[in-house]
Amino acid sequence: MSDPTVADLASWAAALAGLDAPGDSATDIPDAARIDLLRGLERLKGAVDAAQHRLAHAFEESQRAEQRHAGVPEQRVGEGVALQVALALRESHQRAARLLGTARVLCTEMPQTLAALSEGRINEWRAMLLVRETACLSEEHRRTIDEKIAGDDDVERLGTKHLVSSAHHLAARLDSAGVAERQRLAERDRRVTIRPAPDTMSYVTALVPVADGVAMYAALKRHADAAAAAGDGRGRGQVMADTVVELVTGRSSDVPPAVELQLIMTDRALLAGDDEPAHLPGYGVVPAEWARDLVGRAASATTAWLRRLYVLPGGRSLMAMDSRRRTVPAGLAAFVTARDLRCRTPWCGAPVRHVDHVQPHRDTGTTRAHDLQGLCERCNHAKETLGWSSRPRAGPVHTTETTTPTGHRYLSFAPLLPGDDEAA
């Protein structure tokens, strides 16, 4: 059988998209066959995942060789590769970098794990866990674990926890000092992160050493139990969450935060009761009623600053901004950040860290809002490497076109802000 082409893959994808479609008499098959198909599709997913990793690794090796041949300094060889993969997968830069790292290990150090993935005996998540749990080991020890776990036919019968436990056990026997050192070094990665949750909520996560985490949770639980015993009507989880907010911010959990949230909403939604949703940078779309309530509580509890954002008449594209605060930040950078909200690289979604020229200033790019875009640090550095180019394009919203070293082109559109639905 010859190697499949892109057209072949598209044809197969189209066939799978119609598999067992409701109401289609041609798909009237017994449930036993459906179970067999589900298993077959899971095996196919493993083969596809393995193929993606092999292709990604081969692409990285080819790009690195090309960059070296072009005279790129060794410390910069490899820059921009992850971003090209991210754009192809419609994924974030970080996700693509993780895939490339996993692919490199699977293709060079853990052939049995790659084979098990190709054959559908393990899935991509479990393959990644085996790579992660052996990261602190030498290549020799990693190959030993690869052979003993992934090379065993019984790997297909292992659940995720059993698989990780087996890897831990073998790693500790092969290099106990290395595992202990990895655990000590892990404390350097302690951090606090935030990500959106449904219904105008958010997850704030603290990654801390296990002893500290257990102690924190136990203290919060004791406080919640004491509150319940005293007749507090809130649930245990509510008391624990409110206590964290009060301890960290120094204010009651029902008092609005005294920070600039940069809530973006129309004047109609704010003043005339319109239902046009608002936008909260760092979170996303929020209902108009919720936004009005936040503004009202903030205005009654503390000083509230209003920053006017001007939208094109009849549209939803940000065109100008003024500031009513006494101390104004770098105006143009603040405007671009408010317009773009997140990194403008398609599918990235990381916070804006750099406001940079779409077309480099050295190539006649101008320092105007039309010629600027908000990017995360990784994407900005990647687009400065060999073979990348970008330019602004005309459109109803701010639009840029990026061309990668392989000649693929991607359009990026500034997000639509609250405004007239007719412009959407």
Provide a descriptive summary of the structure in words.
The protein is mostly helical. The strands form five sheets. The chain has a three-stranded antiparallel sheet with strand order 9-10-11, with no helix packed on it. The chain contains 15 helices and eleven strands. The radius of gyration is 26 Å and the shape is globular. Helix 10 packs across helix 11. Mean pLDDT is 83; it is low at 322-329.
Q: How does the overall form come out from the CA principal axes?
A: globular
Amount of beta strand: 5-15%
Task: Enumerate the spans where pLDDT stays under 50 for 5 or more consecutive residues.
Answer: 322-329
Q: How much helical structure, as a percent, in the residues?
A: 40-55%
The secondary-structure class comes to mainly alpha
Query: What series of H and E elements makes up the topology?
Result: HHHHHHHHHEEHHHEEHEEHEEHEEE
* Count of separate DSSP helical elements: 15
From the N-terminal CA to the C-terminal CA, the straight-line distance is 47 Å
Secondary structure elements and their pairing?
Layout: H1 6-17, H2 31-69, H3 81-89, H4 93-108, H5 111-118, H6 124-133, H7 139-150, H8 160-174, H9 176-186, E1 191-197, E2 201-207, H10 210-229, H11 236-249, H12 267-271, E3 278-280, E4 284-286, H13 288-301, E5 309-311, E6 318-321, H14 331-340, E7 354-357, E8 372-375, H15 377-382, E9 389-393, E10 399-403, E11 409-413
Antiparallel strand pairs: 1-2, 3-4, 5-6, 7-8, 9-10, 10-11
Helix pairs in contact: 2-4, 2-5, 3-4, 5-7, 6-8, 7-8, 8-9, 10-11
Short description:
By secondary structure, this protein is mostly helical. The protein is built from 15 helices and 11 strands.
